[in-house]
């Protein structure tokens, strides 16, 4: 009797939403995996992790938890203390330790264009929402995605609050106890490859580098991304 495959939970990052995983999800479903795309609120790291954690608690059976970019920080907290999560998969992602934020990690190594790419929108109460300026979205965020497709991603992007990107992780990260896999985008202009490699090595992740890939590696290379996820799923089956 064939064993039930784990549920793959996809957590998007900042300046994105779950629709970016469409081609990845299509392939996973065709391969027989249950798939859930979480709605990441992008409001604050601890509150975002709590919401994703609540979703995880509703899923029966083992889970492979996947995070892109800021979503990597979210899954690192959300999976903590949840034994149903058997593997963590990071896609061009932040993999913070306790006390680190997305902002502090992106500033740790040279090569990121994120600071010059942000378009702030002041909010009532003194907070700020951050978008990637559509004028640079293709070049800085999605250089290996066709220009017309990148333009649509720029239009439909969801902002992250300044609070979310600046909030440090406050719990021991789940990657200390859960096996992890890290897909590094080799030409990333948002999270420099050197930063991704540093975080992957520190977390003792199984690593694969996609040379020439932009920050949207899972959009430009869906087949390779899916194969990477399925390798993680098979390893913890």
Automatic annotation (TrEMBL):
GO MF annotations in UniProt: hydrolase activity
Residue stretches making up the AB hydrolase-1 domain: 8-227
Keyword Hydrolase: yes
UniProt signal peptide: none
Keywords assigned: Hydrolase
InterPro entries: AB_hydrolase_1, AB_hydrolase_fold, Sec-Metab_Biosynth_Hydrolase
Keyword Hydrolase: yes
SUPFAM superfamilies cross-referenced by the UniProt entry: alpha/beta-Hydrolases (SSF53474)
Classification via Pfam families: Abhydrolase_6 (PF12697)
Origin: domain of life: Bacteria
Entry protein name: Alpha/beta hydrolase
Lineage, top ranks: Bacteria, Bacillati, Actinomycetota, Actinomycetes, Micromonosporales
